[in-house]
Amino acid sequence: MWLFGVLIAFATILALVLLRKLFNYWRKNGVPSTSPWTILGDLWPTFVEGKIIAFVYNDIYKAFPNEKFVGIYDLIYPNLIVRDPELIGSILVKDFAHFQDRVTVQKRTSRLDYHLITLCGEQWKSVRTKIVPTFSPNKLKGMLPMIEYCAQAFDSQLREKALTGESFDAKETSARFTLDVIGCCMLGLRFNSLDDQDSEYRNIGKMLINPGIKGILLQVLRFSYPKLLEYFNISELPTPLLPFFTKLLKQSEEFRKHESTKRNDMMQLFLDIRDQEEQINDTDDSGISFNDNVILSNVFLFYVAGVETTAAAISFCLYELALNPDVQNKLRQEVRTVLKANGGELTYETLKQLKYLDMVISETMRKYPSTPFINRVCTEAYKLPGSSFTLEPGMRVTLLPYSIHHDEKYYPNPKKFDPERFTPENIESRPPFTYLSFGHGPRMCIAPRFAKIEMRLILTRLVSKYEFTPGPKTEIPIQLRSRIFLIMPKNGIHLQVKQVEENS
């Protein structure tokens, strides 16, 4: 029996020695760092306790209040958290050449892996340059009637709930709205998921945000050990996705063959680029052409990124308006005043006049950034300012929008919902790079103007007609989902709604 005890003690000592050696990278390089005690590194609260990953990172952020950067470990992989806004600006903008790639699997394991998140270097730059014109002001103006068409279905849903007195799930309804918008504006297809509760299009979306244990494990491996997925040629994506999006692409192309005029949507731009390159047999210096794989992958990307994140922002906004009736009333007054001055028309120019609405949206995305952290990979050796340490190529860096947005130093009383934080004067008073909801720099979100115009239109339409209040099913405070990388409500966002009189 004593021998068994000795063996256990020896094994424990050996494990501690090995862990200390394993987690010694930052310490030996003189970088302030954490001291993990399991092979799960600093992410163990997420795996063991189900703690939201944004909160895990935020605890580390707050534990080093006087440091510009902190070394941590995602499992056993060294990762540098950057806290200082000036250094964040250097990474995202000034010294972008050193940090132009994201953490990703370099080897393509699926036809859906050729989009802006997974592409690196010159290939990423080539594809992004071709897609950017999709979101020009003129293109967005042309998409406005399509967004308005989808908004009418949202309006109808709320009118019915207002008449019956039932609560509605703002998150689910918003997700179906943003999905219908993507169908219209990107593919030229009418998904009508707001009217079809068993919509195949929506079920695929739910599969993406409910990946299950296997999916979560593969996502963790992609961030922590991408080489492992490359070696075994494993895709993290659920099997049904490729045939689904292949079918979508074919439907969109077939639909266009029977139309006499060209559609003003994203897919048409994609197809025009592809056809032009095929005619001249063009592959640019990056070695990538705008072929069907690139189109398929970016359709998939916009389907993922353009639905859940925007829907979360809309629903969190409605939630905060319900909890803050003074803000809701002020916003309704602005909306009605601007609409009246513009003959009731929801034009591109009308929406741009809604300054308080922009403040409300910005405050919502400050409090609930849909992407709570931003990762980058060092692509060229980079000496950290104020330090003797040099990041070598391949090292990863993480920026924390959630933590920056909830730092008392930049946003006093951060749990309070206060749109006045985003007056021009208050924005000017804060250091640059302390608002990161869409990122910054060349690799920021490609479609912030599209997301904003979509949010402006639906919120303008809804707030002008309806009053939102908490109900028996409303969670206060709201519970957030654990073990995922996004900020999402755990149980939906259930609100009461009633129609308001035109002059109220």
Explained architecture:
The chain is of the alpha+beta class and 504 residues long. The protein has helices at residues 2-22, 25-28, 44-49, 53-63, 85-94, 121-131, 137-164, 170-187, 200-209, 212-224, 226-232, 241-257, 266-279, 292-305, 308-323, 325-341, 348-352, 355-367, 401-405, 424-429, 448-465, and strands spanning 69-74, 77-82, 168-169, 374-377, 382-383, 390-391, 396-399, 466-470, 494-499. Helix 10 crosses helix 11. Mean pLDDT is 87; it is low at 2-7 and 9-17.
Quick rundown:
GO terms for molecular function: heme binding; iron ion binding; monooxygenase activity; oxidoreductase activity, acting on paired donors, with incorporation or reduction of molecular oxygen. By secondary structure, the chain is an alpha+beta fold. It has 21 helices and 9 strands.
Q: What structural class should be given to the helix and strand makeup?
A: alpha+beta
- Order of strands in the sheet with the most strands? 1-2-7-4
Q: How many strand segments?
A: 9
What's the SSE pattern? HHHHEEHHHEHHHHHHHHHHHEEEEHHHEE
What percentage of amino acids are in beta strands? 5-15%
Approximate helicity band: 40-55%
Average of the residue pLDDT scores:
87
Main β-sheet description: 4 strands, mixed
Q: Please count the helical segments.
A: 21
| Weakly predicted, low-confidence segments | 2-7, 9-17
Name the shape in a single word: globular
C-alpha termini separation: 81 Å
Gyration radius over CA: 24 Å
